[in-house]
Specification:
Blueprint: H1 15-20, E1 26-29, E2 35-38, E3 46-50, E4 53-56, H2 57-69, H3 76-98, H4 105-130, H5 135-148, E5 152-161, H6 164-176, H7 181-188, E6 200-204, H8 211-219, E7 230-232, E8 235-246, H9 252-278
Antiparallel strand pairs: 1-2, 3-4, 5-6, 5-8, 7-8
Helix pairs in contact: 2-3, 5-9
Length: 305
């Protein structure tokens, strides 16, 4: 994720965002009172000057990489457009400094927050660089995840209704004719995601379902259905099991990047949690609670992806 005008704050909830951020340029104010565009890279090669203020090639390169990530090819025209934009930004920023706008309390606070955000990103990048996740660590984590995810996945259909009496009535109909499941699901199920498909949920891991649903599916035999309604937070389910198979993990080379990023997030979260535990954070007053959103209609459990 590339940081544009947003201010990124450090915390457990922002570990992923911080870990994904790349280095960006920043506008700082020099002691001479003029705005100067700087880059995080080490080169001082100048791409252009604006009334004597340099625009560094590294800054242009960073912005080119950002545009390339969005699908634009590197070209002289793109670089010229970026330099033109940076030149105008520098001119406007210098005028703002001349008018003393950088001294306004709100602007100063935003500049300080941006500085903290950039420093936080720099810390994360430095931590990742100096605490590399090795191939051995990735393999161990991959094996650990697969050990936990062992077992079977299931292909099932269900009918979700509001009351136990409705569910028992459906079960009675199925005991006479299991082939009626499809039409009963289409006419009676409250689950909009599956009713049009005859209640079909596709393949799923029961761990991704609400506990009552997952436990009921795991007990069923292929071709059988629940003879008692399965109650969950969504209502009452009638479930038929179509098939099951052992869970086959994806090859490590296919998921190694995700596993590596997950380990980096875990490591960073541990560091951040330790920082927070050792810090003295004094919140003045009670933070205002956000208004509670309107309660949505609860959907039926969706298959795990």
């Amino acid at each position: 994720m590339l940081m544009k005008s947003r201010v990124l704050m450090v915390g457990a909830a922002s570990v992923l965002a911080l870990a994904a951020c790349t280095k960006k340029e920043a506008t700082t104010v020099t002691t001479a009172g003029t705005a100067k565009t700087t880059a995080t890279a080490t080169s001082n090669e100048v791409a252009a000057t604006v009334n004597g203020t340099p625009i560094y090639k590294d800054t242009v390169d960073i912005m080119v990489k950002e545009r390339m990530a969005q699908g634009q090819p590197d070209s002289p025209e793109l670089r010229k457009a970026i330099i033109d934009n940076l030149a105008m930004q520098t001119l406007v920023a210098n005028e703002a400094v001349k008018k003393g706008l950088d001294k306004q309390p709100e602007t100063a606070r935003q500049m300080e927050m941006l500085k903290q955000s950039l420093l936080a990103q720099a810390y994360v990048q430095d931590y990742i660089k100096n605490n590399a996740v090795t191939d051995e660590m990735v393999k161990a984590e991959y094996d650990k995840i697969n050990a936990k995810a062992g077992g079977s996945e299931y292909k099932a259909r269900h009918i979700l209704v509001a009351t136990e009496a409705e569910a028992k009535d459906i079960i009675a109909k199925l005991q006479k004719d299991l082939k009626s499941f499809d039409s009963l699901a289409k006419s009676k199920s409250m689950d909009p995601g599956s009713k049009t498909n005859g209640g079909d949920l596709g393949w799923f891991n029961p761990a991704g379902m609400v506990p009552e649903f997952g436990a009921a599916v795991a007990k069923l035999e292929k071709g059988k259905f629940t003879t008692e309604p399965v109650k969950s937070q969504f209502g009452y389910h009638v479930i038929v099991l179509d098939d099951s198979r052992p869970i086959t993990p994806p090859p490590m080379e296919q998921v190694s990047d995700q596993v590596k990023q997950g380990l980096q997030r875990q490591n960073l979260k541990a560091v951040f949690d330790k920082m927070k535990a050792e810090a003295k954070i004094d919140i003045k007053g009670e933070p205002a609670a956000a208004p509670a959103p309107a309660a949505p209609v609860a959907p039926a459990p969706a298959p795990a992806q």
